[in-house]
Amino acid sequence: MNYLAHIFLSGPDRQIRLGNFIGDAVKGNSYNDYPPAIRKGILLHRAIDDYTDHHPAFIECVRRLKPCFGRYSSILADIYFDYLLASRFQEFSEVPLKRFTRNFYWTMILYRHRLPARIKRFMWHFIGTGRLDKYASVGGIRNSLEIMVRVGRIELPVERAVDYLATHEAELWVDFKPFFGSLQLYCADWIATHQSAKGK
């Protein structure tokens, strides 16, 4: 899953959300350098990635993408799933997308001293351009992919990836909706099970 889904699946705690957001930038045991709630978010991020990578719906989505996108298939599946969450956010949340994302941008500012250096470098651009909100439109997905290609210097065919999303959106939604429902239950259970970790 990509940024928006990770944040959304964290529940209401600001620090757990932040930890989940920075999860990819925290390697190995360095999560122990963070306060308990942020640490919990980082570990939740890893649990979400593991659950997603082994879920039949995600595996099938990646399989269908492979002929067109090869090694970038799992990256695109993550981004397509974030688009499906953002564009239908009202089906999963009582809070509108814009209010939800503004709340998280404020969290980033409040805890900016806890952000890894790599994330600090793009934080203000991320907030200023409303990056999370852009996942709700095909144009926003195009923009996100263009940034990935430019910054990551990868050879992902952006227009072909956008065309695939536009053509196969209904098919992707059939995979995504039950998958995300099961992932929500998994995360709620994970957070409840690890609740005591916050105070350690």
Provide the residue-averaged pLDDT. Answer: 92
Low-confidence stretches: none
Could you say which structural class the secondary elements and strand pairing correspond to?
mainly alpha
Shape: globular
Biggest sheet statistics: none
Q: How many alpha or pi helices?
A: 10
Radius of gyration: 16 Å
Give the helix/strand layout.
Blueprint: H1 3-8, H2 14-22, H3 36-53, H4 56-69, H5 73-87, H6 97-110, H7 117-128, H8 131-134, H9 138-152, H10 158-193
Q: What does this 3D model show about the protein?
A:
- It is globular and about 45 Å long.
- Helix 5 crosses helix 10.
- It is about 70% helix and about 0% strand.
- The protein is mainly α and about 200 residues long.
Summarize the structure.
The chain is an all-alpha fold and 200 residues long. The chain has 10 helices and no strands.
